[in-house]
Amino acid sequence: MAKKKTNKKVTKKTTKKKATRKVGSAVDKKRDDLTKKKIESLATSIVTRSLSQKEPTFEIPTRSISNMKYNKKKRILEMGPNTQTRSLFNLGQSRKFMQSLLLAKGCRDLIDAEKTLSLRGMYYMGLHTIPGTKEKTFNDQGESDGILEDLEVSLDGLREELHVFAKKRGTMVGNITVVDNGDEINCRQMGSGGYAIPSICEPNVMQFKKCEADFILHVEKDTVWSRFNEDRFWEKHNCILTEGSGQPPRGVRRMLHRMHKELKLPVYCLLDCDPWGHYIYSVIKQGSINLAFESERMAIPDAKFLGIRSKDYDRLDLSDDVKIELNDRDITRAKQIAAYPWFEGKREWQREIKTMLNNGFKMEVESLITKDISYVTEEYVPARLKEGDFLD
Amino acid sequence: MAKKKTNKKVTKKTTKKKATRKVGSAVDKKRDDLTKKKIESLATSIVTRSLSQKEPTFEIPTRSISNMKYNKKKRILEMGPNTQTRSLFNLGQSRKFMQSLLLAKGCRDLIDAEKTLSLRGMYYMGLHTIPGTKEKTFNDQGESDGILEDLEVSLDGLREELHVFAKKRGTMVGNITVVDNGDEINCRQMGSGGYAIPSICEPNVMQFKKCEADFILHVEKDTVWSRFNEDRFWEKHNCILTEGSGQPPRGVRRMLHRMHKELKLPVYCLLDCDPWGHYIYSVIKQGSINLAFESERMAIPDAKFLGIRSKDYDRLDLSDDVKIELNDRDITRAKQIAAYPWFEGKREWQREIKTMLNNGFKMEVESLITKDISYVTEEYVPARLKEGDFLD
User: Which domain covers residue B49, as residue numbers?
Assistant: First the structure.
């Protein structure tokens, strides 16, 4: 476990940089070619069917909850084997058929142009009025977002491999140097602001360089992160400090996953003691129910839940002021989460959620301020790390 | 105006760093002492009144819209001279009286501890149950946020000077090096993620070092920012590229203000053609109506609105797909904004809003993707910069 180390003196390495850099220098040709081939083979199969007088169709894996399963061995959520047919001549499917091919073409164009685009951008890219009609290819971004998820699963490629990115959120500091799009970023010298974790953290864009850290501390909110950064927790405890502004976006999850896998760093999560905090943990650990197909490259089954724990109210002798009453929605959510297959068999998690329900209140990380401004950085987290008292 | 320059070769400077750094090394002793004195003189005056058998009261400037005025000469929103008395013995005011002194004490403690805290943190810091009662000092964070604003105006100190910070959002890249809490941050080498602009950008934490940039391009959304960063716009056009994830938070506004004032950089805003985009511009330029007392150190009266313009639909020969119909709320908001004193006398802004209302639709920056993925970075913004066609 994370031992306290003497702070190492870190000197910035002088790196000779190329005077100019080509746009798209971080493009992974090999991976891009593979993704393009997948898109083209989808198109080819449809053309072949059409030319042989068969109905133009293609199969996509079913993204409904009924087709998700928890892989107990891998300890991640996975998609089941069910697929559904999308057919041009089926009135209920023809619109989605058209949209899928439109966006598949859009992704191929992006790959060719060596550029990336936001989900909103993809919506506009595919948007046009069908000639001779007043019908638009997409009514709103919700439609194109769903189709992009279909494409991800059909092509078995992460959204990032299709050159599409989600909103950027989350920051990082700590004892690591990363190379992002050719720039060396020393996360030990990122001031009070930090390094903004990009939307796309794939190996072609992001490489890891020097890293002395023993572990990663992931906190839920940027305000808590600021407290830890101001107290230089990462320096004192030799770690990497990340935050995802609530439910961490894909970029942050992918970053955590890669640092965990490639650098063998344990991940400890400091989240609120409420169903939302438990759900965030569940997504980081097992994957998201909506996007189970990406778990393999996103989930961190070994992640640990460091706190806040429902027993903290008694254990830390907290005042009543930290209590936030559970509402009906919280109670329903807590019961749903307790029934998740990956929490179901875990006695400690069952006890955790039960205690919270019995308490009748939730608690936020910030509530520890009622003890002392820096109680969370100087007492709470160090004590948990020392004890090794985590939920798994 | 921003001329195209040859890209300069930038080499990272090797900086010797201190091996260890004291927590709070970025504390501005002089400023902190001044703020503490203000807090203490508030307390002293109350004690003095009490000891001389007078009712404990203090005056705070009125924060209502009726006490805001637009200073035509300075071109910013300012607070008027009206104040209101807060008295301990007035049943309707005693709670707020107590809360004000509680949070003032909290701020002094923060200054003494050389630490900063989030708004949420301040709420917890001041929260307790009044002995012998079941009454809490604060019912929710909304109460403490309001009191903190009262304190800001009463003490004539920015929230940041009281060591309190708001949520962090927004990122930056470009031809500038800043020093943040002692760390040298080269914004030319921030990869695809960028430098996360801190919540507190006061001179004690943030200093500017080398800057070759000719101007600042501020865009509304992180996804648009990513497009500009990926196309290395800031390198090609020698500028600084910022985004504020919608309405820019205080940190971003203060950063823009300081770079504009201290580095003499013009600020161009690329925002949506809708009332929300116009309002964002209004806040960046003249200050926010709710927090007019901070305009002097936040507002940028010389900021320019680069686009999207309502005439772009015709000028750029855009397709109907870019149109998003104005709803009733948009129309009401647009009329309100047109009536703002700082837009009222401006013929160009009146025409802009009128054209949008006549069009009956709004347009987003992302909609330019319907022309080409990089149309906005390669054609649209360069053309506007060349023409100098901005709204003021």
Answer: 29-165
